[in-house]
Design goal:
Two copies of one chain form a homodimer. By secondary structure, chain A is of the alpha/beta class. In chain A, the strands form two sheets. A seven-stranded mixed beta sheet of chain A has the order 5-6-4-3-7-8-9. A two-stranded antiparallel sheet of chain A has the order 1-2. In chain A, α1 runs antiparallel to α4. Chain B binds a DNA duplex through α3.
DNA sequence: GGATGTGAATGCATTCACAGCA
DNA sequence: TGCTGTGAATGCATTCACATCC
């Protein structure tokens, strides 16, 4: 049994705060599109179910960019959040696994405008190799290292069966990938130079099950 | 601007603990398949990157079902966790939206054995209605209420575009759905008799981006 | 007046450390 | 001896409340 390292903190900033920054950014994009110029911590918080103090504290971890009496300038804050999250630069991302989920992800275009670009997909199954899905070509696993180097790939989306996930994860670590968005229902064992984010649909549904069950009683 | 209610706690049990119960269950299924009969809090924790004390405390919230000197009996604990999470009964689930993601979810069979059954899919687009995907028929939105009643549906998976999500959410609330697994990148505004769990892929990637960025510096 | 930014206070969650049991 | 269950202690995160600024 391999031993997992516990989740570690990257900095002095609370992990939940970093998650909320993403939510702020998403909401601010909406405000920006709607033509709104400024926003208060109160308004931003209410639209997300978060207290105004929490919003201010989260933002203040990264400096002072509010304006007394005014609030935050939407475009300014968007730019700053992108910079903080690292999505002001474009990340090249690979998708491993071109099954149902992998294909759906390749066709989902919601990433593009947000600082991520899917540059290639990989599948072990030769019959899938060569096809183009959502404008991205499916390649053989053997070409992973080359592609990763060519595009300086640091992020990967893992959409392979659970049984294969750890092996692929090890491969990815070896070629310099440092972040994995993992859709396989397993806890990956990774080194210290790698972070993972596992999205397990069954886990998600179980959370709902628990809570709905409680409401029904 | 609609105001969201803050996340509330269902009981005296820490929310993070409930999330971990799902992880324990997932891991225990593996042990069970491998023929392992008992497991200690230490072993279970290590395989998930969680401390042994944490494991024991999480489980102890729900009673005492460990055995001194032995640990926990795997099958017994699996049964108990299913019971706690509510997945010892079968939940009928509907999928709203038969686009890329909706289709992928319908074809993903990983739920079945875990207490969830996809009973129907719905789409607004008439050209999709009538098709069968992964053994599930796509129906018109208009038939949602009937199906929900017929199958006593309490859980829904939302895979519609962001712009449509809130309206669908309101519909779902009206017909008695109480839990939503939301893949649209918006914070849904719900009443008190409803819980949501939003999986936003961009948010997930942004978390990785932030952390990988920090590691590269 | 209407906001931010922030120390202080509170409230949660996790870990420690050990009694107790097989 | 090996392990659980649990109060006590610690450590984090959130909220309060107010000085401060436009």
């Amino acid at each position: 049994m391999r031993r997992l390292r516990a989740t570690m903190r990257t900095s002095g900033i609370p992990n939940p705060a970093i998650r909320r920054l993403s939510l702020y950014l998403r909401q601010l994009d909406l405000y920006s599109q709607a033509g709104q110029r400024t926003v208060s911590s109160r308004q931003l918080g209410q639209s997300l179910g978060i207290s105004d103090a929490q919003v201010r504290k989260d933002l203040a971890y990264f400096g002072q960019f509010g304006h007394s009496g005014i609030g935050y300038r939407v475009d300014e804050l968007v730019a700053r959040l992108r910079n903080i999250l690292g999505t002001d630069k474009l990340w090249n991302v690979v998708v491993i696994g071109a099954g149902n989920l992998g294909r759906a992800l390749l066709q989902y275009r919601g990433f593009m405008s947000k600082g991520f670009r899917l540059v290639a997909a990989f599948d072990q199954d030769a019959s899938k190799v060569g096809k183009s899905i959502g404008g991205v070509v499916v390649r053989p696993m053997a070409s992973l290292a080359n592609v990763a180097e060519e595009y300086d790939v640091r992020l990967a989306i893992l959409a392979v069966p659970a049984a294969a996930a750890q092996d692929v994860c090890d491969d990815l670590a070896r070629i310099g990938v440092m972040g994995i968005l993992n859709f396989a229902p397993v806890a990956l064992s990774t080194g210290t130079r790698m972070v993972q984010n596992t999205v397990d649909l069954a886990v998600q549904l179980e959370q709902l099950s628990f809570q709905v069950k409680a409401m029904l009683e």
